[in-house]
Amino acid sequence: MVRINVVEFYSGIGGMHYALQYAGIDADVVSAYEINTTANAVYKHNFPNTKVSQNNIEAVTIADLEKLNADLWTMSPPCQPFTRQGKQEHSNDPRSKSFLNILTILSKMKTPPTYILLENVKGFECSNTRNEFVAVLKSRNFLVQEFLLSPTDFGIPNSRTRYFLIAKQQPKSFTFSCTQFPLQYSTETIDRKRIPCKEQSLDHENCVCKHTESVLNTFKQRKLSDFLFKYKSDDFLVKKEVLLRYFPVLDIVHTDSIQSCCFTKAYTKYYQGTGSILTHQSSNTLREASENFKEAESNDAKYEILSRLQLRFFTPDEVSRLMCFPDNFSFPPNVTSKQKYMLLGNSVNVLVVGNVFKWFLLND
Prior knowledge:
Blueprint: E1 4-9, H1 15-22, E2 27-33, H2 37-46, E3 52-53, H3 62-68, E4 72-75, H4 97-108, E5 115-121, H5 128-139, E6 142-149, E7 162-169, E8 183-184, H6 208-216, H7 240-246, E9 252-254, E10 277-279, H8 283-295, H9 299-307, E11 312-313, H10 316-322, H11 337-345, H12 350-361
């Protein structure tokens, strides 16, 4: 592929940019749009030669984007309008306004991009916003394929199911037959059973489901130990009061685990459903401690049992590794641990996106 110009919308800390590098794409990111000042500082810290725009995407115009003449748009719009925990107001949510502005521009501009990649939470595929997006794409002669993919599908021990939409403007074409429904390769279970393709009319030898399976079969299952740093500080140990109150609902994993919960921006602030807690003890020791905890009568006795597990939070560097950021990625010195967790929780998994680029969207 020849060198391509890229515009990143909602560029965050540069996950999409790293994914392009991972995929070996000769890309020039001509502009990265992000309203979060801390995210922009991190992006600029790692990509000092890329133009980072603080402009609100709601204010971006057709002229702005025509001038950039990008071949590829990447975007990861605010997910709150589509999450299961939210009100699910979709396009009626004020946080969708910036994305709707992108759709308006896309429907009217003279020279739209050739390629588009969108990432969002699982649930976006059920929204009227998705329907509006697909309608605009098809009106501009784009082919569309949708996926639900997680790092666990690629052997990474971290659950993070996300919706992906890739679009390619004709006469460009995909190397596979597209499905009408989002393709979900596996459930996030240890046995990794493949969900059958819903399409009955396709030649499955050329179906994207076969293509996806052939790609994912090249990845070996990895353990959490592959992503951990040597760690001696007590800074990330779970505090006594948190252990006593929340231990029954914590998702606790050990170094040989092949799964961990999705890390969210609320990790270390809230304790249920925001990410996993790590112990370096064995699964048998963890199981025994859980049983003894139930039988203990006093808080002192309970804490004595739990303290042996040395339960701790994953460090920001370890979360970054699980999200497959390269080892040369770093945060500026003034970014706090809390900010790091928030920024990572809002980012993308570099390996997953990189493979979507490499094997599905940009493999002309």
